[in-house]
Write a structure and sequence with these properties.
Strand order of the largest sheet: 5-4-3-6-7-8-9
Number of helices: 6
Helix content: 25-40%
Largest sheet: 7 strands, mixed
CATH architecture of one domain: 3-Layer(aba) Sandwich
Oligomer: single chain
CATH class of one domain: Alpha Beta
Distance between the termini: 46 Å
Bound molecules: S-adenosylmethionine
Structural class: alpha/beta
Number of strands: 9
Low-confidence stretches: 217-222
Mean pLDDT: 95
Radius of gyration: 16 Å
């Protein structure tokens, strides 16, 4: 296995941080070096974000692990991801939910949607569909979703995402600009929505109809 030593050290460090066995098992299998531009491959198993071009990043492994754990992923689930980026987070979730599950991952930048699609194909993940579009609107075509994973920071929770979450579902979403917090949003079986603050994080902004406005130099809400 390529980068075996680096991978083992990363998994050991994530285990020490309290990441679940289920997520560690998945991350052990996903070749992160296939999800970063080749010039960064040698740093793929360092626990930090890396540039993937177009002013975007692949999230740090501990953040991917944390989000997977907070989502309480289970086999066979249908997941919506906002922000495909490199496709790595989707690949880790795909390992956990297995072949009976399905992931729809939306990316607003065409070059990254192609990058994510190719990386997922090269790594052998056939149950992830990458969609080019504005994920702040969700993806109504396949709603509702068991889980929604948002990997860019929103001004506040986009209402289409709440609507497209299944009763009993969980969403994780970073919110805020500059000072950001990660929230766990749960929809109870009878439709009641609760929002729990997990703590401070740093993500790139969610840009779109219910995100930040790319044309507003003051980075205001659209
Ligand atoms: N999950 C990614 C991975 O594993 O590499 C990391 C994603 S990166 C931190 C956030 C991504 O969200 C970027 O690729 C960015 O282009 C994308 N993004 C920002 N706003 C978006 C939107 N409204 N819809 C879809 N993607 C968006």
């Amino acid at each position: 296995m390529e980068y075996e030593r680096e991978r083992t050290l990363l998994i050991r460090s994530l285990a020490e941080q309290g990441v679940s066995e289920r997520t560690l098992k998945a991350m052990k299998k996903v070749p992160r070096h296939l999800f970063v531009p080749s010039i960064h491959a040698s740093r793929a198993y360092v626990d930090s974000p890396l540039p993937i071009g177009h002013a975007q990043t692949i999230s740090a492994p501990h953040m991917v692990a944390m989000m997977c754990d907070l989502l309480e992923l289970k086999e066979g689930q249908k997941i919506l991801e906002i922000g495909a980026g490199s496709g790595y987070n989707a690949a880790v979730m795909a390992e956990i939910i297995g072949k009976k599950g399905q992931i729809y991952s939306i990316e607003r930048l065409e070059k990254l949607a192609v990058f994510a699609h190719e990386n997922l194909e090269n790594a052998g993940y056939s149950n992830v569909e990458v969609i080019l579009g504005d994920g702040s609107l969700g993806w109504p075509d396949n709603a509702p979703y068991d889980r929604i994973c948002v990997t860019a920071s929103a001004p506040d929770t986009p209402h289409p995402l709440i609507e497209q979450l299944k009763p009993g579902g969980i969403m994780v979403i970073p919110e805020g600009e500059g000072y950001q917090r990660l929230y766990i949003i749960r929809k109870s079986p009878d439709g009641e929505v609760t929002k729990q603050d997990w703590g401070g994080v740093i993500f790139v902004p969610l840009v779109g109809h219910h995100g930040f406005n790319p044309y507003d130099s003051k980075r205001g809400k659209k």
